[in-house]
Design a protein that fits this description.
Strand content: 15-25%
Distance between the termini: 23 Å
Shape: globular
Radius of gyration: 14 Å
Number of helices: 2
Low-confidence stretches: none
Order of helices and strands: EEEEHEH
Oligomer: single chain
Mean pLDDT: 89
Length: about 100
């Protein structure tokens, strides 16, 4: 699948080493903030939508974690850090619950 959906581990300013999960496509947001590090929004939306299958994201994340473990790279946290607004994902709750099971 899209390799940029799951990335890391990368250093986090507050959390040590983190594996990032992009749960929506880039630059889908409710705003187009002039100070956004990602630039202007490509698609401004107000309604939540299901973008990716949570099970696919879980599988990709698991592979990333296994690879990091094999390479002795520590992971302190998983972070949902979309290149847009992560709460616009209608499957956000399912994605989080999948990690609790």
């Amino acid at each position: 699948m899209d390799e940029m959906r799951i990335f890391g581990p990368v250093p986090s300013r507050r959390l040590g080493k983190s594996v990032g999960i992009n749960n929506i496509p880039p630059k889908i947001c409710t705003y187009s903030c002039v100070y956004c590090q990602l630039g202007r929004s490509l698609k401004m939306v107000m309604n939540r939508h299901a973008y990716y299958d949570p099970d696919e994201l879980l599988t990709e994340t698991t592979k990333k974690i296994q690879n990091a473990s094999f390479n002795n790279e520590p992971i302190d946290y998983l972070t949902i850090v979309s290149d847009g607004e992560p709460t616009l994902d209608a499957n956000l709750g399912q994605l989080i619950v999948r990690w609790l099971i």
